[in-house]
Structures are given as C-alpha cells and as structure tokens.
Write a structure and sequence with these properties.
Blueprint: H1 2-24, H2 28-33, H3 39-47, H4 49-56, E1 61-66, H5 68-73, H6 80-84, H7 88-96, E2 99-101, E3 114-117, E4 133-139, E5 143-147, E6 153-156, E7 167-169, E8 172-177, H8 187-190, H9 197-205, H10 209-214, E9 218-223, H11 225-230, H12 234-237, H13 240-248, E10 251-252, E11 268-270, E12 276-282, E13 285-288, E14 291-300, E15 303-308, H14 350-353
Parallel strand pairs: 1-8, 9-15
Antiparallel strand pairs: 1-2, 3-4, 4-5, 5-6, 7-8, 9-10, 11-12, 12-13, 13-14, 14-15
Length: 376
C-alpha cells in the first residue's frame, strides 16, 4: 500500500510539472514580442492578418522565423524586387513557405536530408502535392541547415550562440533562422543558377519547357554542361523528335516526388518515355543507371532535380553503375566540343540566362510566377 501511495505521489508531481510548464508557455504573440531579434518578422507576419490569425490558433506547427539580419539581406537576394515592389501575393507565399505543419524540434534532424511540407500550397507558386517542401539536415557541430529554392541555405545556429532554437509557444515551436527561405522557381528559371544552361536550352528547343515547368510532382535528372559538351553537336543536329525521346527518359512523372530520401538502393522509376530507370547506392554515391548523381535535391516549383554527370540513354535502360570510375563513358556517341561552346544555351529566354540569386539587382523575382499565374 505504501509503495502504491509513493507511485501515485510521483505521478501527481510529474503531472503537476507538465501542467505548470504548459501554463508558463507563451502564446505566439507573447513569444514574438519577447524576441527583439524578430521585430521585423513580427511586423511582417501581423500585417498579413489572416495568416497570423490562423497561425495563432494552430496546435502543432513549426515557424521558421527570419531574424532582423535576414531582413537586411533581402535587397541582395532574389526576393528583393518582390519586397521592394510590395508584391503582396509573392510576399504572402514567402510567409507561407516558412510555416511547417507538425512540430520539428532542432534535435529531430540528422545527417540525412529530410523534406518537410510547408503551408505553401497556392498553385500560382507551387505544384507539389501536399505543399512545397524545405530540406532540413544537421551538419557538423550540430548546426541545422534548411535548403530552399535557387540553392538558398538558412542556418539555425547552436543555442549557445546569440540565436536560440526551439522557442516554444502554445501552438508549437519557433526556430530563428539567419536567411529567408526562397520558394523554388520553375525549371527554366532555376537551371542557370546551377550552371545547367545546356539542359535548359535543350528543353526549350524540344518544346518541353511548359511541361517541365508546370507538370505536378516531377523528378528530373539533369545532365550537367560537361555531359552536353562530351556529345558535341550530336544532340543539336539530331531530329527534335529524337531529342525529345532522350530528354523524356530523364523525366519521372510519378505520384511521389523523388527526393533523395525517397530513393533507396534498387528503386525503379518509370520515366515519361515509358521506360524505367534504376537507382543504385554504391561506394557512398548515388547513381541512376550508369550516371553518377553529383548534386542532389535541387528544389523546383513542381518537384526536384538531381544533377548527373552523364546522359541516360533510352536505348540502354539496363546500363548499370560502376563506382570504380569517376565518370562512365557516354552511351550516346558524339565528338566533344570546346568548353567555350555550350550547346543549346541560345534557346534559353534572355530573362533567365543572367539570373543571379545573390545579385543586388536580379533580373526577376524568384520566378515562381512563371507557373502561369499572376504575381500582384
């Protein structure tokens, strides 16, 4: 009996501590007002009353809150023109992109990327089922990084420094980040940022740009410029129907986006051409058929792209990875070109060929409007 009373007493004390902790937790307004380094974010959020009101009544949500320093970076980022012109719909989409359903504590991330849905679901700015995602990973020193469109990176600094993680409020948690997340742009707007101009021009030349820019939940394996150079004029001189057939073999239009976290060893993917690709993980590298993936998980408005070092051939769907060599020989025969002559680049719209997400005067906003809807 005495033991039972003791257990009951401990349980009551534990329960009381939980209730007390909940009583001490601030609501969203109180929390934001207590964080001086979030004053500009608080002002922006409260100016969009519907988002703020909805957020205030949520239970189980994570807010990635850019600090005041992040606001100072806006004029030098691809978000600058939209904020300068007060394009409210774009700014609204940016705010929605910083809100994640569910509670994601800083300690929930590890060395493998996870991709978390956000409140950004407006079809004017994204075409990913369930909402656009942000990538999250924990790097050395327990530093959490978020990745977003145009290769942008935002950092949650160690709690021992001037930024504090896991700021709890009654509806969830706020993380302070040092740079704004950028909603992903469409494919054609994105490729110059990663020096994939040949692929972008080839897609334009083959009249596939509308499809690749707008079709929902795409996974695109994008050969880098070096892969195009290795084939010389072969691709440029072939009939457009044949070029489309090759490019279609690099596009996966499944019901699930192929982020790297969704591509375990042995995964088979059905391409737009109707043939399969096979994912291999070997020697700490990811391969698709024989091609090595050299850059993973570049977010675009309607899915993701992975950069590969070689062309995939619809005439060799059974080609396999050889991790012992740096780059497999091309399966499509051609004569290499000078590095100064990148094929297909002339087909890219001039508004994107000089795009620079870090420019103080970008040639456009972040490009999501090209999905086909207005931006004002």
């Amino acid at each position: 009996m005495r033991s039972s009373r003791f257990v009951l007493s401990v349980a009551l004390i534990f329960l009381h501590s939980i209730v007390s902790a909940q009583d001490d937790t601030k609501d969203l307004t109180q929390l934001l007002q207590s964080q001086k380094n979030l004053s500009q974010f608080t002002a922006l959020l409260t100016s969009y009353g519907d988002i703020y009101a909805n957020l205030s009544f949520q239970s189980g949500v994570t807010v990635l809150a850019p600090n005041n320093d992040a606001f100072n970076k806006i004029p030098y980022s691809s978000l600058g023109p939209a904020f300068e012109a007060n394009q409210s719909q774009i700014v609204r989409s940016v705010l929605q992109y910083h809100i994640l359903p569910g509670i994601h504590p800083s300690g929930s991330y590890n060395g493998s990327f996870s991709f978390d849905r956000t409140w950004l679901q407006n079809a004017s700015y994204t075409n990913v089922m369930g909402g656009q995602v942000v990538g999250g990973v924990q790097q050395a020193g327990d530093v959490n990084i978020y990745t977003s469109g145009m290769g942008s990176r935002s950092t949650l600094v160690n709690p021992l420094t001037k930024f504090k993680q896991n700021l709890a409020f009654t509806g969830g948690v706020v993380h302070v980040i040092d740079t704004f997340l950028v909603p992903p742009a469409n494919f054609i707007q994105s490729v110059p940022q990663f020096n994939l101009t040949a692929a972008g021009g080839a897609v334009e030349n083959a009249s596939l740009a509308d499809y690749v820019n707008t079709h929902p939940d795409l996974t695109v394996f994008v050969p880098n410029n070096a892969a195009f150079l290795a084939l010389g004029s072969t691709l440029q001189s072939m009939p457009l129907q044949q070029l489309r057939r090759i490019l279609d073999y690099h596009i996966v239009n499944a019901s699930t986006v192929g982020y790297s976290s969704n591509l375990p060893n042995g995964t088979v993917l059905r391409t737009r051409s109707g043939q399969n690709l096979t994912i291999t993980f070997a020697s700490n590298s990811l391969f698709v058929n024989q091609a090595r993936v050299i850059q993973q998980d570049l977010l675009i408005a309607n899915g993701v792209m992975h950069v590969i070092d070689n062309f995939l051939s619809p005439d060799a769907p059974s080609a396999t990875a050889n991790p012992e060599i740096a780059t497999a020989p091309p399966l499509i025969q051609g004569t290499s070109l000078s590095e100064n002559v990148v094929p297909f680049t002339s087909f890219l719209p001039t508004s994107v060929t000089s795009f620079d997400a870090n420019s103080a005067t970008p040639t456009s906003s972040f490009g999501v409007s090209d999905i086909g809807k207005g931006t004002n």
